[in-house]
Design a protein that fits this description.
This protein is an alpha+beta fold. It has 8 helices and 10 strands. The strands form 2 sheets. A 6-stranded antiparallel sheet has the order 7-8-1-2-9-10. Strand 3 and strand 4 form a beta hairpin.
């Protein structure tokens, strides 16, 4: 029982996934991204090996549809899975195995998949899909976060949620954002709190590896940004 949204930003080329579920540590098992290459989600009775297989095939140049076909052929338990793939060109596909119960399915368009299994209703997944599209003027990360919140507000999944993850990759081999709540009574609310704290710092942590002297310490950088914003106002 899990719900998630995966997307590629057509303006920046970023790939991102926002996800929540009842068991602990969803971010360790379900979302897989390679920057500039694509994203894979493996959910329901998840097998993380399928996510690794998927991104490896994307790196070889396989299309999203071909990756999904290869995963289907390689997994004898595929009917217990729920899978989604987005490739570098924004081709998006998803598959919900026949063993998934209650409301399980996906909404798909180029560069976007909103999906879930064991949901209270279809609205959990459609709310994510609609919110992401409606908030096209917001930053990519905020669109994903808002979409996940809308899924919770639409009912979420049976049994509630305890873990959540927001992961975004830009151009670097390491993540721009990877925030995880691994056990919490309100994991999406806690993820929002962490995101609001981290978002102003994301640029700092992305660029510090090659500009350590110029950027200085985190507190100094944040103070300089606040001063610049005050002067602009």
């Amino acid at each position: 029982m899990t719900f998630a949204i995966a997307a590629k930003c057509p303006d920046t080329g970023k790939f991102g996934i926002a996800i929540s579920t009842r068991p602990m540590a969803v971010g360790a098992r379900c979302p897989f991204i390679v920057p500039g290459v694509g994203a894979v989600l493996t959910m329901a009775t998840t097998d993380p090996r399928l996510g690794l297989l998927g991104v490896n095939l994307l790196q070889l140049g396989y299309s999203a549809q071909r990756v999904l076909q290869e995963i289907e052929c390689s997994d004898p338990h595929v009917e217990y899975r729920q899978l989604a793939v987005i490739d570098r060109d924004g081709n998006a596909v998803a598959r919900t195995g026949a063993q998934n119960t209650d409301w399980s399915g996906a909404f798909i368009e180029p560069s976007l998949v909103s999906l879930g299994n064991g949901l209270i209703s279809e609205r959990t997944a459609s709310a994510m899909f609609d919110t992401y599209k409606e908030k096209r003027d917001l930053p990519f990360e905020e669109r994903l976060m808002s979409a996940l919140e809308s899924a919770r507000d639409a009912g979420g999944q049976h049994g509630g949620q305890h873990s959540s993850n927001l992961v975004v990759y830009s151009k670097q081999q390491y993540s721009l954002i990877d925030l995880r709540v691994d056990f919490h009574d309100e994991p999406i609310g806690e993820l929002r709190r962490l995101y609001n704290l981290y978002a102003p710092r994301a640029e700092y942590f992305e660029t510090r590896p090659w500009q350590p002297a110029a950027l200085g310490r985190e507190d100094e950088w944040m103070s300089s940004r606040a001063g610049a914003a005050g002067n602009a106002a």
